[in-house]
Task: structure prediction
Amino acid sequence: MPAGTRSNSVPAEAGLDHPAPTQGAGGRSVGADAGVFLKGLKQWEGEHPFMYVDTRGYVTTGIGHLLKTPEGALKLPWRHSKTGQPATVAEVRSTFERVRQAAVQFKQDHSNAKGIPPAACERLSDLVLPEGFATRLATSRLNTEFLPHLRELFPGFDRYPLPAQHAIVDMGYNLGVAKLKHDFPAFVAACRNGNFADAAKESHRSSCREERNRATADLFDQAARLSASVRTVTREIRL
Amino acid sequence: MTRARALAFALFAIVASSRRDLPAATSAGATVTPASDSPSMVSSDCYGDEFYYGWGRARDVKKALACYRASNDWMMLAILQINGDGAPVNITGARASLNRVASTDADFDALDRIIKKREANPTAKFRRVDFCNDVANTTPSVDICQAREEGKKIAKSDSRVDKLRVGLDVSARSAFDRAQAAYKKVAHADGERVYQENIDGSARSQEALDQEARVRQNFVVTIKVLVTGPAARLVGRRSFADADEELNAVYNETVSSYVTFNEDSATDADKRKDEEMAAEYRTRNSDYKTKSRTAQHEWVRYRDAMGDLAAARWPNIRDARDRARALVTEDRIRELRGK
Result:
């Protein structure tokens, strides 16, 4: 890790961080609503409205939302998919344990085949989150956890071209902001300098498949072109 | 089959038939599935991947096909239909299966593109489709595929390590066994530590897998030196004491940087009056400290077990134990740095 080393990463107050404005040339901060990022996140993170286990056996749901304990699961409004009836506390607890136990059993049965695919966990219970809830959950996490950190790391975030914002949110959600800050200093510096072409080059994640990396780099390239266009237009207006 | 598993799959049998009331599921899929592709009888506890990949049983693609269908695993069913596994190639059926997939994400898009190509060129010859190589793009799918690859590598390295044991004399074998057992524990504990370290990112499982792989690779290299190498190879670039001093500094830096980040985040959340997030960040710190301590305790046992093995292997070399501990400590410094 050393995740989030505040001393040896790019400090929040350093760098130029004055990219081209997203809308208009006024430079006014326009905070993007967290909801606009959800489509992209769902595309790459997947969305599973039931409880499943990750490859370490931890129960997860929605868009990569970790449920550390049964109490974490109880905070969510589980329903029976067939009847739409709310699940009882006992049902949520037993589903949580069943899914967790399935991972333990799977590991015993297949020592070298770690992890049950989410699709296989779906069969273990009919408890699901209401339609749209996984999205709301992820939106809430973006608002309370990711966006405050990203705005701290990239003070001009709300004025970045929207494609750059999308790409940064995808990287932050996937890697965690602490890792993004610590392990991608050249990327952070490029964004802060408004150099999205360089950000595209520095955005490669070893944890992602090439397709996702390419999509992220494409977003930054789009942002670079938008920035260049806005600068050109601004210059022409001034002339 | 255990009782828990039997219970789980018995429940599944009830649930599966009622799930997924998707519009596409009501007609299209059912009408385009040819008789040759119809499910054979499978028990309610079948698990498609076991049959398809031959995990712990003989590979049986027909049963895999039936299992995927019974469990509504439309993505895998479509792949088998494209490949002609268990039934003749059926691109129309694959399209119908894909249409039943509830979540249109990057996995869906990848398979959609594959099917489109085959629909456009029905007579062309295409290579087989593999879920992990050709479809998996979302974080959970990539995680599963990475875990499977890692599982294969673990099996391979376990086999190599077991072979090393054969060459040892009896007196060194118990030390070897202790070292191997200690490695398994430290690999798991350090995976847990790194999982917690990356708890805010969706790639946390993958980061943990990467860390376990680092620990495994270092173990395999070092134990090979201890078992097969001449004593001359048992020399690090510095003494055990010097390496240990750096390790302590790196460990403290690693833990404190994580703790500082979360403590600052908790303070920020306090300022926003977001009590829930403030508590969450403090819990993350507490969990991380616990997991770091556990991993480090396991590592110390592992380091000493490797030292004991070196001492058993070279009883005439006075500092064999410390030389081995220095090598393992150098590895640990790199592991903590994620390298």
In short: Residues 1-16, 19-30 of chain A have pLDDT under 50 and may be disordered. The first strand of chain A starts at residue 48 and ends at 53. The beta strands of chain A are 48-53, 59-62, 65-66, 79-80, 127-128.
